[in-house]
């Protein structure tokens, strides 16, 4: 992950948050003969803290670098990841969001769409979403906004909510488009796993700004109305041409957006996923979202607050 980055300016911190595999043993073996690799154990969870944010805070506290880069255990950063992400920090840049393609089924297409939304919103000057699998920010900027702030309680949001806090602080946010900065990750193994993950991610939306919540509410009712119009037309209650026209315009708009996003993210093999998504995504949006807004969510066997 740092083949061409000066070793005297680099520290790699592995945070063990209750692992039950060979993580600790493997890291200890790798630590032999090097001083840049550290292993720390996440402290006992503080009341009101979400587990991942608790672990991240421990890692940040143990680090000394000016720029913090985060990734996850199921990721494989390339040898030029560090230098590529760091090179995106210009004068005034407080955070850099990277792309993290995922392998396998619906999770792969979902990660691509999220990457397009992330790059697009940042390009428009309205940073909205990021992924903790590939995220970098200045330590001083993180401290200046009070870290995770009140969002520290939520199971999700160590990425997009933090990004939004950086954006509202007045700092510049960039998106890394170089393939060397991409961080491949392992996708959810089953559709059920993906649903659990998606519900957790969507749950962070309850902590978004009122303006973003308003946009998502409009999108939700657009999809709900689209489904309702199809159902009524099939029941011969309304003409078929209206839902067909609206759905057709949606298909064209989605294709144009994803086509441009695929060029920016160097993404291939997305067309098949897009065809399926155009049919099923309105139903997924309408039926998954309500379940993400109530109750607790699951994260590695732990039931947590939204």
Give a summary of the structure in a few sentences.
This protein is of the alpha/beta class. It has ten helices and ten strands.
* Strand order in space, largest sheet: 3-6-4-7
Give a short account of the largest sheet: 4 strands, mixed
Beta fraction: 5-15%
Give me the count of strands: 10
Parts with pLDDT < 50 across at least 5 consecutive residues: none
- Overall structural class, as computed from helix and strand content, comes to alpha/beta
Mean pLDDT: 87
Q: What best-fitting shape do the alpha-carbon axes yield?
A: globular
Order of helices and strands: EHEHEHEEHEHHEEHHHHEE
Helix content: 40-55%
Task: Determine Rg (CA atoms, Å).
Answer: 20 Å
Overview of the structural elements:
The chain is of the alpha/beta class and 306 residues long. It has a domain at 210-304. It is built from ten helices and ten strands. The protein has helices at 23-31, 51-62, 81-86, 105-123, 139-144, 160-168, 191-203, 210-234, 241-265, 271-292; strands at 12-16, 37-41, 67-70, 93-97, 102-103, 135-138, 172-175, 185-186, 297-299, 302-304. A hairpin with a 2-residue loop joins strand 9 and strand 10. Helix 4 (105-123) crosses helix 9. The radius of gyration is 20 Å and the shape is globular. The two termini are 33 Å apart.
